Amino acid sequence: xxxxxxxxxxxxxxxxxxxxxxxxxxxxxxxxxxxxxxxxxxxxxxxxxxxxxxxxxxxxxxxxxxxxxxxxxxxxxxxxxxxxxxxxxxxxxxxxxxxxxxxxxxxxxxxxxxxxxxxxxxxxxxxxxxxxxxxxxxxx
Length: 140
Prior knowledge:
Blueprint: H1 19-28, E1 32-36, E2 42-43, E3 58-62, E4 66-75, E5 87-94, E6 99-102, E7 118-125, E8 131-137
Antiparallel strand pairs: 1-2, 1-3, 4-5, 4-7, 5-6, 7-8
């Protein structure tokens, strides 16, 4: 019997307002976030109303994709076959103010000082066609 292993991205659980985020990422290679049409506040995660002015009017606008690391962790146990250990997870505060959870393109070394370090978006195309937002050091 001939078997073939296919690398697949773990299924994402999308909310009612999430799909445009992923579509823009794949189509443009840029991160787009909801932006209130009335007060201009950007929001992530996306939702039905602006938390600042409660308007339900919004549009999707690109963000810089740059920010700084707020927190990070290296997982030494494998939980999913698509993410062999060790792998990292970072919390990035985008320059526009929103926080996104993602990964660095490289694994940091023990003792690396990452909090506050500048990063920029890198869109990673997975084998199954999914585009994922990842980050690399801005000074790389």
